[in-house]
Amino acid sequence: xxxxxxxxxxxxxxxxxxxxxxxxxxxxxxxxxxxxxxxxxxxxxxxxxxxxxxxxxxxxxxxxxxxxxxxxxxxxxxxxxxxxxxxxxxxxxxxxxxxxxxxxxxxxxxxxxxxxxxxxxxxxxxxxxxxxxxxxxxxxxxxxxxxxxxxxxxxxxxxxxxxxxxxxxxxxxxxxxxxxxxxxxxxxxxxxxxxxxxxxxxxxxxxxxxxxxxxxxxxxxxxxxxxxxxxxxxxxxxxxxxxxxx
Length: 246
What we know:
The chain is an alpha/beta fold. The chain has helices at 5-10, 41-54, 77-91, 111-122, 147-164, 193-197; strands at 19-21, 25-26, 30-35, 68-72, 99-103, 129-133, 167-173, 200-206, 212-219, 228-233, 236-239. The strands form two sheets. The protein has a nine-stranded mixed beta sheet, with helices on both faces. It has a two-stranded antiparallel sheet with strand order 1-2.
């Protein structure tokens, strides 16, 4: 459909989708959480999942309670269980009936095959969010430095969004070297397509203070937000308002 600009402006039924995380992530959009290796991305994504499943705050942002699927390519089920137990105990939560975990560690399938399987398995579930952790597990046989390979993967993720209606958030890693010397969206490893494609980019860059990270947001559809600092306080990260993100 090609819209007349006048008709588009006059369409009172057209509205932005629900914000799953206020000021950060809409339903039906694509988000990336990126940091250096072993910085706690899976812990943070599990915290995000628990927060949305229960409608409780994630870091400094309110969330909207919704049903979601966490697709885990890396951690054994026993360790996922342990991490969930620690996070929910810390946050004082008990009911995770909105959260579903699908562990695919060591399951040999390329993303072309897996995409159809995911859609078939969840087509009646109406998940509001799908988390893919981590993205590199979907890059088997492809180069993350090649724009064509990354473009195909991003298109496949977009198909997942279009065919399920869910937002998709995935974990990615920084390139080697001093990330602080680069702009936030340029810190992601591999092709620049990763940064150009996403609607929401959240980066965690090591801070001068031990166990602390500067959090920066690059947002396509929402107002810009100032960076802030979090501290790794196992099993969650907590805001440190006394520290300068610069």
